[in-house]
Amino acid sequence: MKKLLLFLGLCVMSGVQSASAQTWEDAYAVPNMLGDGGLLQPNILDAAGTEYYNFQQHATKICENNSVIPRDRLGFHFDALQTVPVFAANNGGTINRNLQEYRFWFEKTFLDENISVDLILPLYYSTGDSQSQVDPTPTVMDGQFGQLAFGLKALLWEDQDKAYAAGVRVEAPTGPNFTVDLPLIVPDAGFEMDAWYFTPWLGGQWTPGPNWFASAFVSYRLNSGALTNERSNGFPPVDFRQPTYLFADLSIGRWIVQREGQGGITSLAPVLELHYTTTPTAGSENVGGENGTYASGILLGKTDYLNLTAGLNGTYNDAWQFGIGAAMPLRTNPRNGFPLWNTDRTFSWALLANLNYYFR
After folding, report:
1. Which of 32, 64, 246, 291 would give a disulfide with 233, using CB separation of 3.0 to 4.6 Å?
2. CA pair distance 10, 7, nearest whole angstrom
3. What are the helix (H) ranges across the chain?
4. How far is CA 360 from the centre of its chain?
């Protein structure tokens, strides 16, 4: 952690020394990325080897509604994730649900607009944090507050046609714990979700000509340590580790409308985005079969998500930026021995939307 903080400190100093403060035109020239539906980190609970409850842990990815340039803004991001696998049984029965994510942003710049801090408030309509094996519908849905996130962004370099930045995002353990009521066995089984998550990142954006633009992020999501798996039927609690995640995100677009300084729609740009997520370290492969064991590691193993997003971005009155799009997973890869779910996709498709208001 000390090395990470030292690295960010050097990035900040470099940014202050070499980056010029952006103009208003620079600030909205390259649209914020739409993302790809976010990271639905699976936390699968094995109920005695016969039923599997997949609790969705929603993570805010660096690419979602983000820009390389530090900005003063209020923002909103929405994801509607379709056909998310939430339950499976050994008899082949599966249950899928449609989930929604709502994230609210506040970002403020400092030091001549070379540095910014942001705060992200996440609300989700997702699998309920408490499920029951005797419920005829064993995947109750409800609203929940997610992991409060905050971060730092430093502009390292900016000139007329490119900019580079670095930052870090921290997610606090403000989301729910997950439990399953196994009525014939006590106590309830579940996961205590008390880890912190740290995501250092690098980003760049380029405008090689009057019409085309591109942006990219590379980030690595770490966790603070092991979590506790409470098990039933007399089995003692055990610790488990979640996977770490490496992200690579690329967006390319072209302006088809540019009306800077005028009223109404002042820019429009279709975009294509490609998002790759992999797990350099997989989750713990605890032995399954006990009542309520963490089973994501042994059932899913290493995962590789590759998603394609197509969308349209624009600005209104040079103060509002909006975007809408759809994301589609490009990989499936059902794991040998566990064909009930595809390990390399967590949804069938997703609808995405951004909205930002820039203030000074």
Report:
1. 291
2. 5
3. 2-18, 24-29, 296-300
4. 28
* Cα distances (angstroms) measured from residue 335 to each of 142, 221, 340, 356: 29, 24, 9, 40
Residue 193 vs residue 262, higher pLDDT:
193
Q: 2-358: which CATH architecture?
A: Beta Barrel (2.40)
Question: From the CB of residue 293, how many other CB atoms can be counted at a distance below 10 Å?
Answer: 24
Identity (one letter) of the amino acid at 132? S
Tokens of 133: 């094996």
What are the pLDDT digits (tens) for 184-231? 555 678 899 999 999 999 999 999 888 999 999 999 999 999 998 888
pLDDT digits (tens, 9 = 90+) for 55-82: 888 998 999 999 999 999 999 999 999 9
233 DSSP 8-state letter:
T
Q: Tell me how crowded residue 306 is: count the other CB atoms within 10 A of its CB.
A: 16
Q: Quick one: which of 5, 120, 114 has its CA closest to 61?
A: 120
Residues 284-333 have pLDDT tens digits of 887 555 678 888 888 888 889 999 999 999 999 889 999 999 999 998 87
pTM of the predicted protein model: 0.88
User: So what's the pLDDT on residue 338?
Assistant: 59
Contact by Cβ (8 Å): 31, 282: no
Sheet strands side by side (includes 238-240): 130-132, 178-181, 189-192, 227-230, 238-240
297 in Cβ contact with 303 (< 8 Å): no
- Residue 290: the pLDDT is 62
Question: Cα angle vertex 75, ends 158, 266, to 5°?
Answer: 65
Query: What's the burial of 191, exposed, middle or buried (CB within 10 Å: 0-12/13-18/19+)?
Result: buried
Give the contacts of 120 (CB within 8 A, at least 6 positions apart): 60, 103, 104, 105, 148, 149, 150, 151
Of the candidates 264, 250, 251, the one whose C-alpha atom is nearest the C-alpha of residue 320 is: 264
**Cβ neighbours of residue 266 closer than 8 Å, sequence gap 6 or more:** 257, 258, 259, 260, 314, 315, 316, 317, 318
Dihedral angle over CA of 276, 177, 47, 225, nearest 10: 60
Backbone angles phi, psi at 269, to 5 degrees: -155, 115
